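dumping this here so i dont lose it
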């Protein structure tokens, strides 16, 4: 079955309904090696996934470099997104200053072996700088042909509205899944009203919504989830009770847990293009068929019973990880 397409915002290109997040290539969720990452990208391309997402800080350029190497070697035709705005620490900071954005874009383009990217996100908003000024900066990059469009990540509805009035926003990327549903409190609706694509990242709950139990106590020290409250005791045990019930429901339907979780996200609106990530082609195979799963009203009710809104124990970020994320409710 071919991968269906969805439109990346009003007047945007048609892209695969499921995109691909390249954060895992940087080793954020366990060991990663470049050769395996390149093999994974080959499987991603073969699956018809042509909307790829990376960022300048993923492995301090490692993810962009791997993507760029693959594109150079294969000439693959993809719609590419990358990000700017997080300044590595310690302590970590944020900059949406025009010269910084331009310099980082030039560095990203060099690593990606591209003359432009189709989508350039503000990874985190610099709160001291008016978002209208940032929109003007991104508008100039569009006029110069260095980017086709721009987007925002982890922002509030009010920020989206203000930015969009200056230079139309093509996409907004916030965390969204069956265990992180905050965007339902305004972001999803704002994007739909304005014709903006909504790009759920971590749609599989950072690996928890799968068929195999994770082992948080044995995560490597640099694993992003090591200090994440949802993966720590006593929250973890409570969360796994819900996950195992969801697994049982998926098994009853004859699908993998991750494919069902992804199908649920896709079902929430045609303007949604989730970007799951993985380090291996084997894991890709577990969820790539999500677009072929149909969900009835009864299915949706059953899922809601097993994983009701707010079921997750613990915050989705630690206090340190939360810095830079806009809170609005």
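and the seq i came up w/
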């Amino acid at each position: 079955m071919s991968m269906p397409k969805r439109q990346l915002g009003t007047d945007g290109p048609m892209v695969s309904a499921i995109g691909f997040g390249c954060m895992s290539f940087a080793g954020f969720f366990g060991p990663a090696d470049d050769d395996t990452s390149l093999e994974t990208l080959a499987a991603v391309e073969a699956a018809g996934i042509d909307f790829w997402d990376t960022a300048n800080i993923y492995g301090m350029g490692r993810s962009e470099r791997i993507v760029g190497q693959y594109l150079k070697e294969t000439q693959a035709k993809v719609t590419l997104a990358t990000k700017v705005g997080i300044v590595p620490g310690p302590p970590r900071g944020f900059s949406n200053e025009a010269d910084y954005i331009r310099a980082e874009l030039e560095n990203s383009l060099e690593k990606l072996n591209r003359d432009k990217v189709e989508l350039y996100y503000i990874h985190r908003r610099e709160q001291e700088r008016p978002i209208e000024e940032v929109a003007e900066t991104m508008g100039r990059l569009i006029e110069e042909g260095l980017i086709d469009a721009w987007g925002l990540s982890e922002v509030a509805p009010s920020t989206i509205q203000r930015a969009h009035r200056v230079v139309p926003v093509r996409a907004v990327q916030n965390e969204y899944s069956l265990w992180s549903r905050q965007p339902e409190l305004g972001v999803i609706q704002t994007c739909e009203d304005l014709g903006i694509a909504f790009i759920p990242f971590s749609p599989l709950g950072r690996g928890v919504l799968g068929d195999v139990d994770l082992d948080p106590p044995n995560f490597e020290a640099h694993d992003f989830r090591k200090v994440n409250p949802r993966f720590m005791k006593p929250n973890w045990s409570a969360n796994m009770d819900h996950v195992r019930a969801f697994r049982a429901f998926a098994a009853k339907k004859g699908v993998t847990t991750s494919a069902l979780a992804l199908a649920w996200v896709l079902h929430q609106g045609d303007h949604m293009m989730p970007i799951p990530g993985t380090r291996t082609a084997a894991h890709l195979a577990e969820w790539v068929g999500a677009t072929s799963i149909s969900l009835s009203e009864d299915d949706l009710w059953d899922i809601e019973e097993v994983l009701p809104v707010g079921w997750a124990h613990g915050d989705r970020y630690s206090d340190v990880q939360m810095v830079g994320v806009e809170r609005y409710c």
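Residues 235-253 form the longest helix (19 residues).
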